[in-house]
């Protein structure tokens, strides 16, 4: 597809890469946009897009036949996820987070918090920041409060902090603070599937309650269960600054 042949396209600087164009619409993350492109589900002015295709002003982009229109009206939400809610945009799942929140604009969760866990999760329609947060997942702190089925001690703390063999790897060093007879705080900068639960199980413990209370500079605070709030201007500024530092 010769996008440059259109006489209305004055300069390549007016164009934007197809995955960024789609993600900036809030349709999905940039990573998911790449998957749509690779699957042949994306067209630009009726022509099937390829990885690296550029979109110029005035062109019509469709994903699975649906028009995609970028927006600068970005939304950034902090949500206190209750038990039983699934962090998916799949509306066939009756417990999906999107129907639960019922926000008036199309949004999607950044990352996951498993169905049996509660606490802070971020949602947005900014595909760029989703991509940047997920790509930097191994470099940002997430803090949890965990209650297990029997008392924890200094030996438990030492073993958790030092790394444990789960999912065919050794977990990265983390920080653990004992905060009660059966309760501890843990700060991870890793995102393995059900990581905390698997780490506890390895040491013979079962997680009874797990709540995420912080992601980077963003804290759950006193936000009630099942409620959301918009990030403040300072929170957004600090978050973008951290992500930019991580990128460099």
List SSEs in N-to-C order.
EHHEEEEEEHEEHEHEEEEHEEEH
Which geometry do the CA atoms define? elongated
Low-confidence stretches: 1-12
The Rg value, from CA coordinates, equals 21 Å
N-end to C-end Cα span? 34 Å
Total domain count: 3
What is the level 1 CATH name of the largest domain? Alpha Beta
- Counting H and I runs of at least 4 residues, what is the number of helices? 7
CATH superfamily of the largest domain: Pseudouridine synthase I, catalytic domain, N-terminal subdomain
**Structural class per helix/strand content?**
alpha+beta
Number of strands: 17
Average pLDDT for all residues: 88
Assign the CATH topology of the largest domain.
Alpha-Beta Plaits
Overall CATH architecture of the largest domain: 2-Layer Sandwich
- DSSP strand (E) fraction? 25-35%
- Helix content bin: 10-25%
Summarize the main sheet.
Answer: 9 strands, mixed
Written account of the structure:
The chain is an alpha+beta fold. It is 25% helix and 26% strand. It folds into 3 domains: 9-67, RNA-binding S4 domain (Structural Genomics Hypothetical 15.5 Kd Protein In mrcA-pckA Intergenic Region, Chain A, Roll), CATH 3.10.290.10; 76-137 and 218-247, Alpha-Beta Plaits; 141-215, Alpha-Beta Plaits (2-Layer Sandwich), CATH 3.30.70.1560. The strands form 4 sheets. Strands 7, 8, 9, 10, 13, 14, 15, 16 and 17 form a 9-stranded mixed beta sheet that branches. Strands 3-2-5-6 form a 4-stranded antiparallel beta sheet, with no helix packed on it. A two-stranded antiparallel ribbon has the order 1-4. The chain is elongated and about 65 Å long. It starts with 15 loop residues before the first strand and ends with a helix.
């Amino acid at each position: 597809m010769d996008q440059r042949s259109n006489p209305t396209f004055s300069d390549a600087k007016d164009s934007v890469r197809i995955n960024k164009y789609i993600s900036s619409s809030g349709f999905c993350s940039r990573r998911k946009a790449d998957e749509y492109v690779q699957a042949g589900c994306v067209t630009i002015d009726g022509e099937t897009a390829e990885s690296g295709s550029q979109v110029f002003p005035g062109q019509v982009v469709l994903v699975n036949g649906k028009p995609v229109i970028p927006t600068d009206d970005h939304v950034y939400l902090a949500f206190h996820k209750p038990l039983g809610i699934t962090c998916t945009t799949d509306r066939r799942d009756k417990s999906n987070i999107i129907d639960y929140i019922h926000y008036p604009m199309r949004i999607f969760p950044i990352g996951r918090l498993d169905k049996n866990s509660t606490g802070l999760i971020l949602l947005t329609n900014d595909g760029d920041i989703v991509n940047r947060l997920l790509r930097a997942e191994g470099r940002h702190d997430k803090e949890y409060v965990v209650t297990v089925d029997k008392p924890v001690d200094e030996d438990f703390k030492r073993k958790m902090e030092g790394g444990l063999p789960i999912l065919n790897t050794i977990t990265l060093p983390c920080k653990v603070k004992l905060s009660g007879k059966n309760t501890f705080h843990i700060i991870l900068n890793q995102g393995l599937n059900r990581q905390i639960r698997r780490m506890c199980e390895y040491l013979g413990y079962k997680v009874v309650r797990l709540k995420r209370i912080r992601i980077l500079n963003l804290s759950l605070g006193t936000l009630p269960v099942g409620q959301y709030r918009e990030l403040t201007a300072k929170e957004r500024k600090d978050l973008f600054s951290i992500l930019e530092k991580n990128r460099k």
